Description:
Chains A, B: One of its GO terms (molecular function) is transcription cis-regulatory region binding. By secondary structure, chain A is α/β, with parallel strands linked by helices.
Amino acid sequence: MAAHKTKVTIFDVAKASGVSSSAVSYALNGKPGVSDATRAKVLKVARELGWKPNGAAQALAQSKTRRIGLVLGYDPQLLAVEPYMMSLISGLGAELEKQDYSLLVRLSMDGDEEEGIIQDWIATGNVDALLLLNLEIGDPRIDLMKHNPQMPTLALADASLTAGLPTLTSDDAGAVGIAVQYLYDLGHRRIARVAGPEELGHSYIRDAAFSQITTELGMRYRCLHTDYTPEAGADATKRLLSVSSAPTAIIYDNDVMALAGESQAAVLGVKVPDELSIMSWDDSFMCEAAHPGITALHRDIVGSGRMAAQLMLKLINGEEVGVEEESPYALKERESTAPAPKG
Amino acid sequence: MAAHKTKVTIFDVAKASGVSSSAVSYALNGKPGVSDATRAKVLKVARELGWKPNGAAQALAQSKTRRIGLVLGYDPQLLAVEPYMMSLISGLGAELEKQDYSLLVRLSMDGDEEEGIIQDWIATGNVDALLLLNLEIGDPRIDLMKHNPQMPTLALADASLTAGLPTLTSDDAGAVGIAVQYLYDLGHRRIARVAGPEELGHSYIRDAAFSQITTELGMRYRCLHTDYTPEAGADATKRLLSVSSAPTAIIYDNDVMALAGESQAAVLGVKVPDELSIMSWDDSFMCEAAHPGITALHRDIVGSGRMAAQLMLKLINGEEVGVEEESPYALKERESTAPAPKG
DNA sequence: ACACGGCACTTTAGCGTTTCAGTAGCCGAT
DNA sequence: ATCGGCTACTGAAACGCTAAAGTGCCGTGT
Lengths: 343, 343
């Protein structure tokens, strides 16, 4: 509890307890080789001196850092505004906390830089495992990790993109089905989608599912790809609504764009939901607070974070992990969707 | 580039370059003691073998981790929805990235746990510096860091709360002045504020400033404290508007509550801005996308993150840091504010 | 011709743990 | 009484790096 001017090491604790440093180590780590009495004594002394094993020394000796690596794509505007990442971090962190693991976070400006960071982690051993996010089609990171199997890696992406790497996948195609069927049942026959970047893996998955299902149901379907920003969402909305025979319903790939789209519709004098139904992929407070509230495909992102953390801990433990599935999407109906207008 | 089954160390590089391990170290770290020719050779070999110094060993040898610690208060709901934290992380990360520093992130469920994490960092040396956020009045962390001056610490809080610790402060009182004067000039005489938790330092600072300025200007002022969540924001709005002689303007302590408040007003049939003006503290995309757009006190949070990172790096370098000031708030006028209604 | 300083290295000693290989003492079995 | 096998420890090596101290060599000034 008291402040110490000079650094206290395991030897200080050993001396103060009248044993050797190895005894202290055994005592601290709950290993056999010390009597209950000495163990208690050592722990008491350690607490009094405020000693904990030095992280670097420990990491060096057992080549375990108790850290998990996460690279965030740098786009402060988007990162900040999209609740997704922070929710995921909450879930990851909460679960890691239980096992005294930390998150090591870096920002990357682009894909090359991210690859560099990952290679750095592989070479320096600064993390015990890492999580891959936002995979693209043919993402070079997959290949990189395939060649470095000693670094436990979990991909958070559709299993079709991860080439057999341990994966936490979500049923995006199923969710597309739910959403489209819902709109179909409301009588919509011309729908549009404001999607994320085309090269992103899950855009691709959703693209394919949308095309297939709308075709099957005989609906007209149009898709605009964006960069996920609110500006792009508003702009896409304007373009979609400016043509004759505009869609009667729009599905946005994230809630930020959905909110921006709803505002844009108001600006254009298009009434939601009477003239236009709006849906969001991913649900957050924004969908709730919007006026009218936005119908959304809800999923438990914090829960996914927790799951991802557990899977990575398994991998670190040497257990096998294949493809696991996130908890499913659920449609959350609010006021932004209604039967399609006549005509 | 090739994958390696067995771990490569500095000795492998040394052998392959025909020099000793220290020569490799000197070459890599740009220190004198090796010729340009050997340096080039060593670097080439290192690249070919894919070698980088092991992080733990390096940290142990020079007691520097190149990591900065950040404890996030765990409230996934709030954390995710409030763009503040993620913006800050973006700024921090971007600046740290330049110097090859990482963020070490942990989640804490409550204050005690956070103190525990900090003590752990102090004892284990797992971070080179740390950033304190969301200080409360008489926050125990201040005392803790005062007693452990060997751990460079920057507080992101009003300087009046940090007892002389290196601090990045903001002019919250000044911002209160701007906001209140603005509403006063629009003719508002009864204003209210939906604030954050009372025990939070910056709530306190703003509370004091609001009381003082509204008194000076002879305005009626009412303040409700909340937990920052959208639900609380909506609820507070309802209560404020339900009394006779309700306020003609409400200022919210964050944009999440402002958005929720605006929605609530719509539900209650109170017209914004004709019958009620709304302002938000902190500006984000939500203020922009809301309909009507919400007038806000804008500040550059990413910039603050960058500044904080720079200051922490200075501290790590042994430089003195006193009290620095964030870039000032600026009023961003949108459609949610208008002259006070007659009567 | 000779000390001298500087350069380009090498050797060695940490850094603070963990862990493996002993070892001393004791107890029970022979 | 002797031996084997525990238990409860100790000593020392190993982890992979950095950095201080040491060494040989060469060019220079006198």
